[in-house]
UniProtKB/TrEMBL annotation, chain A:
It comes from the Bacteria. Residues 247-355 form the ABC3 transporter permease C-terminal domain. The keyword S-adenosyl-L-methionine does not apply. GO terms for cellular component: plasma membrane. Residues 22-213 form the MacB-like periplasmic core domain. The keyword Transport applies. It is a multi-pass membrane protein. This is ABC transporter permease. Belongs to the ABC-4 integral membrane protein family. It comes from Streptomyces montanisoli.
Automatic annotation (TrEMBL), chain B:
GO terms for cellular component: plasma membrane. One of its GO terms (molecular function) is transmembrane transporter activity. It holds the Pfam family ABC_tran. Residues 3-229 form the ABC transporter domain. This is ABC transporter ATP-binding protein. It comes from the Bacteria. CDD domains: ABC_MJ0796_LolCDE_FtsE. Keywords: ATP-binding, Nucleotide-binding, Transport. It comes from Streptomyces montanisoli.
């Protein structure tokens, strides 16, 4: 890196320009990642936070895919699941998205109905009929504390606790009993065959035969992670954000590749001289790649710090933005890696420089 | 400690035909001597230098440096040889724009895996030898043409070469400065004991040479002044 470092300092302007581009792209990728994660969490955190590893849905009608909305399971289905070998718990879970009001405030909420005392709710013991446990989001949205009351589908309900920040399909979650949920959920009310819920949350041990149990119970079981795609907008929303991020990664690699292509072409004369002086091609490649990595690392560090700062500033606001190592450090690492690949492809042309060209009068 | 070219022939493909740039050239350069290579444009002087520098492998014939035959050496071996045994003064100074005069010399040691700090005393000594001790911290754009050419010469000596190859070092300089540069090369040849080849078309420099080899159409026409009266 003897020459690489000195080039960095000598051609300050050019490298600063390229560095700025890297900073901005990293910042953009960081912001997009934080937003994707934040929006994703708003969409799925109630499900990912469930103490369950598989979700059983009623078999959808032909041509339909699994969906958390408009699906019901019956009591006999979850009883069957409870009896299956390797299932530690099978808990019915009712889900519906509706509006709740409290005084003159009203908010969209996802009502999660569980059996009283169920481990699914953060404070399950308090989800009795006629009372609710609010997530912090719901409590904030409705301006309620523990002890307050809210109206849901015409019924006055008592707030027994505020716990967790679960959110589903971009609305905060309200935990209540299955019976209270049923009253609020239009699909559940009329279904025949006894008490119903939307899905069954399963806790299983390794040896469970889900295929056989699905057949017997008339359900379709997927892992909790796979069930996320059954949440309304999640797949398309997440997909388009990830696509943007992917494009930014590709753009950064291409821009860096283009920059180092021009830079390497400009340096051909210097490279020829160094080769004539006895520099091995490997050492020249190392020097040039090291230079690219220094530039990339410095740029991504600044950009990542910027994204993290924005994230910190947005904390506690309505903007769904999540700063975690995965949303901030991972994209930075990807940019460094892809950028280094782009640079490596550009720098590769050092190999073809003929030291003989250092001899002539015209360089 | 010498350079020997024996029966060297170099043919360039030239469109459909072939161009014989060097034709059965034999040249021996003993240590501590300077051989001036002269000849008209296109006669093959630079080609001769490139072959001696191991930058081109001749079609036939051998190039020996320090009594070691270089034919059949791999590219890597040739690179190592260039780094350790050959000093080159390019026609253009070919300095690296981002390096100071001192660093232009240190980089030669770095290429050989030594630390720049360890190379510092020698680099300073050589800069002093070419009269640039005071310009050590300057970059090429802060040096005059003559100063750049002197850095070029000091750099060529940095690896303590056996063979010093110099291609028209004065073409970018006025006569007086050109003279000073040639004098410097002669002095350093004696001091460092290098086998020096100096390509030049300026006949006024010939007086300083121990031998003169005239190249014409790729052939060494006649060696003159083989034992120059000194
Ligand atoms: N890479 C090459 N490919 C084909 N022909 C070449 C190449 N290099 C040189 N030649 C030809 O070989 C001949 C000798 O060239 P060379 O450069 O060695 O001459 P020179 O004596 O150094 O000339 P000058 O005084 O103009 O520098 C010339 O006819 C030149 O055109
Ligand atoms: Mg020439």
């Amino acid at each position: 890196m003897f020459v690489g470092w000195r080039d960095l300092r000598f051609a300050k302007g050019r490298f600063a320009l390229m560095g700025t581009v890297i900073v901005l792209i990293t910042l953009l990728v960081g912001l997009l990642s934080g937003l994707t994660a934040g929006l994703g969490r708003q969409n799925v955190s109630a499900i990912t936070g469930l103490p369950a590893d598989r979700i059983a849905f009623d078999v959808p009608s032909a041509g339909q895919s699994l969906s958390y909305s408009g699906t019901t399971v019956t009591e006999s289905q979850w009883r069957r699941w409870s009896a299956v070998d390797g299932v530690t718990s099978a808990e019915p879970l009712g889900i519906t998205t509706t509006r709740a009001t409290s005084g003159d405030r009203s908010a969209g909420v996802s009502v999660f109905g569980v059996r009283p005392g169920s481990a699914l709710a953060p404070d399950g013991a308090r989800t009795r009929d006629g009372s609710v446990v609010l997530s912090t989001g719901a409590a904030d949205g409705l301006g309620l504390h523990s002890g307050g009351t809210l109206t849901l589908a015409g019924r006055k309900l008592h707030v027994t606790a505020v716990a967790g920040d679960a959110s589903f399909s971009h609305t905060p979650v309200i935990w209540t009993s299955l019976d209270t949920w049923r009253a609020a959920a239009p699909t559940a009310a009329a279904a025949p065959g006894g008490p119903t819920a939307s899905v069954i949350a399963l806790r299983t041990t390794g040896g469970v035969d889900t295929k056989a149990a699905d057949l017997a119970a008339g359900t379709r079981t997927v892992t909790k992670g796979d069930s996320l795609s059954a949440i309304g907008s999640y797949t398309s929303e997440n997909g388009s954000l990830q696509l943007m991020r992917g494009f930014l990664f590709a753009i950064s690699a291409l821009v860096i590749g283009a920059f180092f292509t021009v830079w390497t072409i400009q340096r051909r004369g210097d490279v020829a001289v160094l080769k004539a002086l006895g520099a091995s091609t490997a050492s020249l490649l190392r020097d040039a790649l090291g230079q690219a990595v220094v530039l990339l690392t410095a740029g991504t560090l600044i950009g990542t710090a910027g994204a993290a700062a924005v994230g910190a500033a947005l904390a506690g606001t309505a903007v769904p933005f999540l700063v975690t190592p995965t949303t901030v450090v991972l994209p930075a690492a990807v940019i460094i890696l892809l950028g280094a690949c782009g640079a490596a492809l550009a720098i590769r042309r050092i190999t073809s420089v003929d030291p003989l060209t250092a001899l002539g009068s015209a360089r | 400690m010498s350079l020997n070219l024996t029966g060297v022939t170099l043919i360039y493909p030239d469109g459909d035909s072939r161009l014989t740039a060097l034709d059965d050239v034999t040249l021996d350069v003993p240590p501590s001597t300077l051989t001036a290579v002269v000849g008209p444009s296109g006669s093959g002087k630079s080609s001769l230098l490139a072959v001696a520098a191991t930058l081109i492998t001749p079609g036939t014939g051998t190039v020996s440096i320090d009594a070691t035959d270089t034919t059949g050496m791999s590219r890597r071996e040739l690179t190592d040889l260039r780094r350790r045994k050959i000093g080159m003064v390019f026609q253009q100074p070919n300095l690296l724009p981002s390096l100071t005069a001192l660093e232009q010399l240190q980089v030669v040691a770095v290429l050989d895996g030594r630390s720049p700090a360890a190379a510092l005393p020698r680099a300073r000594e050589l800069l002093d030898a070419v009269g640039l001790a005071g310009e050590a911290g300057r970059r090429p754009h802060q040096l005059s043409g003559g100063q750049r050419q002197r850095v070029n010469i000091a750099r060529a000596l940095m690896n303590d070469p056996t063979v010093l190859l110099v291609d028209e070092p004065t073409s970018a300089l006025d006569h007086e400065r050109g003279r000073a540069v040639v004098d410097l090369i002669v002095r350093l040849t004696r001091l460092r004991g290098t086998a020096t080849v100096l390509v030049t078309h300026d006949t006024t420099h010939l007086a300083a040479a121990d031998r003169i080899a005239e190249v014409r159409d790729g052939r060494i026409g006649h060696h003159t002044g083989i034992e120059r009266a000194s």
